[in-house]
Amino acid sequence: MSRIDDNRGVAEVVVVGAGVGGLATAARLAAGGHRVTVCERADEVGGKLGLLTRDGFRFDTGPSLVTMPQVFADFFRETGDPLESVLDLEPLDPIAHYRFGDGTELKSCADPFEFRRRIDDAFGGGAGRDWAAFWARAERIWDATYEPFLASTLDGPRTLARYATRLRDLGTIAPGRSLRGLARAYLRDPRLRQFVERYATYTGSDPRRAPAALASVPFAELKYGGWYLRGGLRTLADALLDRCTEHKVTVRTGTEVTRITANGAGVTGVELADGSFLPADVVVANADAAHVYSDLIRVPSAARRLRRTTPSLSGVVLLLGVRGRTPGLAHHTVLFPPGELPGSYDAEFDHVFGDPGRPVPDPTLYLSVPDDPGVAPDGHEAWFVLVNAARQGVGTGAVDWRTPGLAERYADLLVRRLAERGHDLSDRIRFREIRTPADLEAQTHAVGGAIYGTSSNGASAAFLRPGNRSPVPGLFLVGGSSHPGGGLPLVTLSAQTVAGLIGPA
């Protein structure tokens, strides 16, 4: 039994990784009286919530949207000064501006009645009524899954077995149906189905295989709204670091953990790349679960289970310093590829998850262009362009993005696709930076650059991510590759769960 499991008071805690999950866990544990050290291999904190600065531009290289702000409000209130005193959170309307393959446009928003009106105006044919029925089902799915599957610890298949006795809720989440199947059951317009299917990518998944329960993802975004942090989302990482500092957490950047050590009773500490050793009663790994169980501490059974899962998709990102201003450009724009509907979305997922994976020749383009003078020089815009991509590697669902010239050629293609869809930047681009899945893997130890660790492809995959409590006493996992999954609010919820499992001093 580890010291912490034996309830012996203040613990020496080492957090491996200073991403959002690691920093939030560290602050909660330190506020609870534990002595906490965070070790981060990079020179800055933030993990996938990265930042690139160049020539007066500031680019968020990871998430560009905050959803479920109540999760962050809970964290800041429970650890010190409230959210509104430390971050400048602004609601977005539209949350995103969608342009479909036939040129139809839709602007999403958090007002359900207004959004239904916009759907009717865009699509007609009773699409708003169809959406209302789908929305009601998505709300029931949210109510059925939030507490047991998002806000609580998950004990593998046994949790699902217990849940299966609640037949009414089981029928609501329809475990045998895919997100695509659920959308088709309610929505007649193929464009509206494509809108719903996009949310599977929020978990790095294929909507044709992801469970119907992921209808909770669009529900959460549209129920609680999309938000931007003035100055960029990187300010969240800065605020988390400040909260750690307030609670006397020791944060060591440029410090790589190469091994988590344990004996028969549980974890004993971590070994660092410089050969030194940090003793610990508790280790919290804010790192990709596959890397933890295969490289940092060998847990063969856990590593085997992860190898049997489908890794999540990754992404290719262009960061563009752009001259001039673009009239009418929303904070977020989604440009679906041209083509006949339904089915035009299938080619994208066939390339990303295919055998072998391939770069998508005509992908959906996700643009984030903040209207924020703090992220670009006067008269300029900072463009973040994201496309879904197969992870780094070889074989099924993978591409070797290190192939000489591939990244540059693909970036050229994406700039051409932008022009074809109404945003010709050929004379406006001051510079561009390219980020591939290979870059993400190198920077964060995310295996293959898979953004969310494992995908939710499969009936139960979304509910069977690696648990927050590991098989090794005293070792806990936090972050997007562990329960409850990826995305800023879920990662922050995982920190709350881990801190609850460890408990106060």
TrEMBL record:
InterPro entries: Amino_oxidase, Carotenoid/retinoid_OxRdtase, FAD/NAD-bd_sf
Keywords: Carotenoid biosynthesis, Oxidoreductase
Superkingdom of the source species: Bacteria
Signal peptide (residue range): none
Alphabetical list of Pfam families matching this protein: Amino_oxidase
Keyword Oxidoreductase carried by entry: yes
Amino-acid biosynthesis keyword on record: no
Pathways involved: Carotenoid biosynthesis
Amine oxidase domain residues: 21-501
Similarity section: Belongs to the carotenoid/retinoid oxidoreductase family.
Name of the protein in its database record: Phytoene desaturase family protein
